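During the first year of the project, the team set up a workflow for recording each protein of interest as an amino acid sequence followed immediately by a discrete structure-token representation. This format lets reviewers and collaborators read both layers of information side by side without switching files. As required by the reporting guidelines, we include two representative entries from the current panel. The first entry is reproduced here exactly as it appears in our internal archive.
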Amino acid sequence: MPQCAQCGREIDSPPQSTGDLTCDQCRQKKFAEGAEKEALHGKQEDFVITNLLLAINIGLWVWMVFFRHIPVGSPTTEQIIYWGANYGPLTLGAEPWRLVTNLFLHIGFLHLLANMWALFVLGRLAESLFGRWTYLSTYLLAGIGGSVARLLWNPMVPSAGASGAIFGIAGALIATFWVGKLPLPKENRRYILVTLVAFAGFDLLYGVWKQGVDNAAHIGGFAIGLLLGMVLGHHLGPARPARVFRERVLLGAVMFVFLFAVVVWSRNGYITDVERARMLIGKGVVDEGLRELQVAAKRRPNEPPILLLTGDAYLRKGDFAKAEAAYKRLTELKPNEPIGWNDLAETYAAEKKFPESAAAWIKLAEVSKANAPLAWFNAGQIYMQMDKDTDAVNAYQKAATLVPSSPEFLAALGFAQLKAGQNQQAVATLQKAVKMQPASPDLHLILGNAYLAIGDQNRAQEQFFQASKLGQAIEQRVRQMMQERQAQQQGAAPQNGNAGPTKK
């Protein structure tokens, strides 16, 4: 059996030409050395696919910013969706083309700059090493696969950017050099490694910081690129057997991404029904919206968005019992989610189930620090309707403790203390409220009543006088505004004999 003239190992496959005594491994290494030199020193116009991708990405951004006046730094969610972002309710419905269009759309200049720099550096090497069509196919497959991964992870937040595809190219290069054991000078390895790390670090952090960009697409694209690189790493170069093998691998990858998309659609496709229901309910077509929700519920009966929207729809119809059932199920499935407890508390209040409503508001305060002040305040309101003055005082006290600068909370607390017979405490609380909001006649009036309750007639009269004075000032200002508006309306009406311009 012939031996390789360079490394001495036996040659299993027949030589590519007469007198060629080089093994596949050495041929690959020689090809990789040439590809690496071409990537670093070749003319930019020779990299057709990289230039095409750069042109499409940059051209779309320029068109959006300079011809459609999209903000340079931070376009709105609606703008990103309009221009083709990956958005579950649309992508999983009638617009699957968003799996591709979002790869060329960027959320701001910095996002574009980081991705295009990485594409410029990595794209040249990938195009030299893999060839134009394998490189383009890997780019698109990784990008689409990353977009599908995003639909699996978080379909309700729109995403855009080339980073999933570029992560795929990075993964393919890493795997190719590792599996194929291809040579690369130390200084060049460092250059490529710095590019990879800087790009990956920026995009991963950007995915955490910027809403609308998700690391699921980055990880999904990288995984697909890594798998492709591991398979393609031994089959580089222009030889026909290598090209045929790459074509078969890419065809298999297309089938894999397609099946992955089918699985994701079967799992999350229900959100298209939910989105249609949301639009119908928003337009007031509640019964039709409920029918769409029933279709979605057959696929995912315990999905929180479906339960939440179902409860909202029944509230609009005034069917509190069914709304209550939906919200109760939501709180059972997601006991630490505040929105379920908030809506359940409001539904109980609408049904006059005051004890249950107060308990739900308290539960909301326990599961959400952000909602706790208002939740305790609402619990106090419910207790006041139940004439449970002491419980109301306790609830208002917790709300005021969390937000001591709120005159509304203090006023409610002071009124509850007065009603509960805690007159001295009511005076102290209401004094703070009046100090924060001295122009409120109602606060002066309540404070005057508190002074009467402790027997301080003089201070009570002062507060009543101040309330009357402020009330008269408000009434006078209202009358003045009405007179000014009436005068403006009379001035706008044309007078007889002066309907048009006059000539001198």
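The second entry, processed by the same pipeline in the following quarter, appears below.
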Amino acid sequence: MNRPPSPLTMLLSRRVRRREVIALLGALGSPWSRAAAQTTRPLLLLVSHLPGPSVTFALLRAGLADFGYVDGRNIAIDEHLAKPAELATYLLARKVDVIFATGPQAVRTAVEATRNIPIVALDLETDPVEAGYMRSFARPEGNVTGIFLDQPELAGKWLQYIKQVVPDGASIAALWDPGTGPWQRRAVEQAARQLEVKLQVIEMRPEFDTVFAEVRAERVQGLVFLSSPVVSRYAARWTAFASSAGLPTISMFPEFAHAGGLLAYGPDLNALRRRAAIYVHRILKGQAPAELPIDRPSTYKLMVNITTAAALNITVPALLLQTADEVIE
């Protein structure tokens, strides 16, 4: 006659089964425990439209470390290229807490992919109000916040500075990346009219040699590089061409001047890249992007590369040297 198992036997049996399950989970890498850990770690998605290592992402991570965020420990950080269809699919598959997007194409792709997930933008080229990302700089009232620049003021300064090192009546070319949107082009054209500068706008394209040939054909005496991630990423290639063509140049990016460009004027970009971490931190702590005002830098830095000036046989005006924040020798 079969007797029913005693309560003690049933308990031991349950313990054995529990130990076996725990051992099995350990052998498989404990997916339950991993899933639990993942739900306790916020997921930050970093979006850029250019492949390869990103200085911006590295400095953002450093800024997050200042707040105690360590990837894999108390935050999960993933990187993604700004391809619209792929990004939308990714967002459907993963619970993303915050998106950080750098550059106008990446910001535009993120906005098109979601109007619900908070987006922290570092966009040096776009007018976010005119683009429809937000209602106002003081109170965005949407899912986008972050750091943007005052492009009209910058464009005027670039032309003013380049005019000081080219002959009167000279023609100046502005290289413009259409992927950044129309705002910079309009700003530099308006500044050129006000300053009575002869301006030729030339589009940047992936075919560098074609752009170089067009610049040579225009017979300009100076180059203004409007802001674009393509300029900062390929600074050495742009400055090498300018040097071979004997052209003085100005750009917003410090790496441009260090790579051999004559002038650079713009905000402290490395500080901005780290400062973007403040927005990520505040959102992770519960603040809504709609309530976080846009950050617009108010201090700018002028750099002059006098080694390049000597190579171009250009005498940099003394006043320009005196007002420079950094002189590269």
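For the second entry, the following points were noted during internal review. Residues 7-27 form the longest helix (21 residues). The first strand starts at residue 43 and ends at 48. Both points are flagged for discussion at the upcoming steering committee meeting.
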